[in-house]
Amino acid sequence: MAKEFRFGKREQKDEQTEIDWNSYSVSTDLALEAHQIFSAQHGGNIPGVKTSSQELEGITVTRLTIENEVGSNIMGKMVGNYLTFEVPGLRYKDPDLQKRVAELFAEELKMFVQLPEEATVLVIGLGNRKVTPDSLGPLVCDNLFVTRHLFDQLPELVEDGGYRSVAAVAPGVLGITGIETSEIVHGIVKKVKPDLVIAVDALAARSLERVNTTIQVADVGISPGAGVGNKRKGLNKKSLGVPVVAVGVPTVVDAVTITSDAMDLLVERLERDVPGNGMTKLLTGFDEAEKKQLIFELLHPLGQNLMVTPKEVDTFVEDIANVLANGLNVALHDAITMEDASLFTH
Fold this sequence. Notes:
By secondary structure, this protein is of the alpha/beta class. The protein has a domain at 45-252 and 311-341: Rossmann fold. It has helices at 31-42, 69-75, 95-112, 136-142, 148-153, 155-158, 174-177, 181-192, 237-240, 255-273, 278-284, 288-299, 313-332, 338-341; strands spanning 5-6, 9-10, 49-55, 60-66, 80-86, 120-125, 165-169, 196-205, 214-218, 244-254, 307-308. Initiates the rapid degradation of small, acid-soluble proteins during spore germination. It is an enzyme of class 3 (hydrolase).
């Protein structure tokens, strides 16, 4: 006999399932999205948060600063500075646009992170290289011009100026190494003693429109796996003892987001095309708990932690990894031009 389901309530004759609503909440790794969601829901400015945007021929650059704990608590993000590049055209494999994004990323990163030439930078490529949407960090590390060893072994190549001591490592993930990423990074930092850590990771977005089109840079560090519900110990100045800049690109959206958006779109279309219909009245009558109950009933057989990514994600991840690597190479080494940087990527 089929189980009986009702809107807003799940009836099970055999057992009662305990629901962890936090697993079904709609969240985002992007500070800009969090800001836009709150502003749309409540209107007005957010206390303790400042934003400014600039349009540059298909690239929107937004600077967002969370100034205090009030803004942090409202946004659900740490106090600090967030720089976001929105580039819808990145979906279409435009080499000229990719080059412009890399150049702008390098230029903004130099201003975002001002370091003396003698400083040592450690780049951490977070993620699992065997899982395509999560392989961004390791791929960026593969394409970086690392020089720390050259200062010891071949100093004549780098001591003329224009090069900074750069090291890079992709530590893998807990499920493969059996070691927390933070433990591995902490050990490396303790040995290498960098002046700055740059952590590169794939993110999760709230909106489908931002997947594969957005780059976020933040000076607050990062929590590996937070976007897909596997939050590990954070990598930040407090945990590592050195400043940490996080660079990320959303490559996935969780199924909760898609389901929630589909419900909202259905209500909107019904109200527009068939005003006053009974289905719209029924759906708009659900409170947030009832809406989550519906999503639970849909996703429970699959497990709530279902992530969705476009089918062309393999090509995109390779392209955006090259964009980030080119930008990092130019930003970290004054002697490297964008034309030179392309020689290090593959």
